[in-house]
Specification:
- InterPro entries: Thioredoxin-like_sf (IPR036249).
- The protein is α+β, with helices and mostly antiparallel strands.
- Helices cover 23% and strands 30% of the residues.
- The chain has helices at 20-34, 88-97, and strands at residues 7-13, 39-42, 45-54, 69-74, 79-83.
- Helix 1 (20-34) crosses helix 2.
- The longest helix is centred in the first third of the chain and has 15 residues, at 20-34.
- It is globular, with a radius of gyration of 13 Å.
- The relative contact order is 0.24.
- It binds FE2/S2 (inorganic) cluster.
- FE2/S2 (inorganic) cluster binds at residues 13, 15-16, 56-60, 63-64, 70.
Length: 108
Amino acid sequence: MKSASAVTRLFVCTAQKDEIGKDVAKALKIELKKQGLKKLLTGGEKLKVRVQTCNCLDLCKHCKKGPGAALLMHPEGTVYGDVKPKDAADIVREHLGEGRVVKRLQVD
Ligand code: FES
């Protein structure tokens, strides 16, 4: 049986009034496919990446009170805020593809 850590989940909040999070989640899925990163090999371990929408992540300052959506990388724990659909490509390429946190979008 596979361990739970074999899946990286991107939880995207969709609790904004305009539900921009839905568009962010859609853009992330498209980028994962485009960049061929739905399945990753990191440190010899195979990882699957899934994008899921969710309710409030308690990061509202960088979500419904701002211009974009908040999202959480699970299980690793990085949190991004004010994410817009156009940021999806950078999150997928830099974070998932290159293993680097996208500093300009990271929030505490
Ligand atoms: S409304 Fe999105 S984090 Fe609270």
